[in-house]
Specification:
Elements: E1 8-12, E2 14-15, E3 22-24, E4 29-31, E5 38-39, H1 42-50, E6 54-57, E7 60-66, H2 67-72, H3 83-91, H4 104-114, E8 120-123, H5 130-142, E9 147-150, H6 161-169, H7 176-190
Parallel strand pairs: 8-9
Antiparallel strand pairs: 1-7, 2-5, 3-4, 6-7
Length: 203
């Protein structure tokens, strides 16, 4: 919350581009390259600075993104295409792993529109793990601290030889829950997080 009492999120200013350093003497901003992502353009960083919307947490810059802006620009869920979920898996090198994955962007949008700060997200039908990826990316991009629980039966995969082959090559047994675990490993590694603890609860 800012000095006017308006709620905002700290929006990440890294981009899925090549790592680069930043040296903008005009606003005294100097940043080291990130491990696997780039920074927003110098023009964007200067614009945020002069708009008083550049904030720092742990010596890292973020954009001050107001909650009211998110609410004023609500989208229809029809703006999200189901094929985008397939592209999300392709970006992780997991093409063909799941036939009908939900779009990550859709889940992120629904979470940001409806979920309070420091919430616990529960997905009883986790499937390929889209919800987990959405929470991880929102935490990273908006400097939040959401946690999540995923529930998925140890159900064998049927009628998807490509997924069965991918899991076998990765040393996983043929279950939908292992699709989810493989995806989580990929997204956590890409997001530069460390896996501190995992726990499987079986009935």
């Amino acid at each position: 919350m800012d000095e006017k009492g308006e709620i905002y999120f700290a929006k990440d200013l890294s981009t899925p581009s090549n790592p680069r350093s930043v040296a903008i003497q005009e606003i005294n901003l100097f940043l080291e390259p990130l491990k696997s992502r780039g920074w927003s353009s110098d023009e964007k960083l200067k614009e945020l600075y002069y708009q008083n919307r550049l904030i720092f947490k742990n010596n890292r810059p973020y954009e001050k993104y107001y909650l009211k802006e998110s609410q004023d620009n609500c989208l229809s869920v029809l703006d999200f295409y189901s094929r985008q979920g397939t592209k999300d898996l392709e970006k992780l090198g997991l093409k063909g792993l799941f036939k009908t994955p939900k779009p990550v962007g859709l889940i992120k949008y629904l979470l940001l529109c409806s979920t309070p700060k420091d919430s616990i997200i529960l997905d009883f039908f986790a499937g390929s793990g889209t919800t987990a990826q959405a929470v991880i990316e929102v935490n990273r991009d908006h400097y939040l601290n959401w946690s999540f629980y995923l529930c998925q039966k140890e159900e064998k995969i049927k009628n998807n030889p490509q997924a069965i082959s991918i899991l076998k090559n990765k040393g996983y047994q043929n279950t939908i829950s292992n699709i989810m675990l493989l995806r989580l490993e990929k997204i956590i590694k890409r997001s530069e997080y460390e896996i501190l603890k995992t726990k499987s609860i079986l009935s």
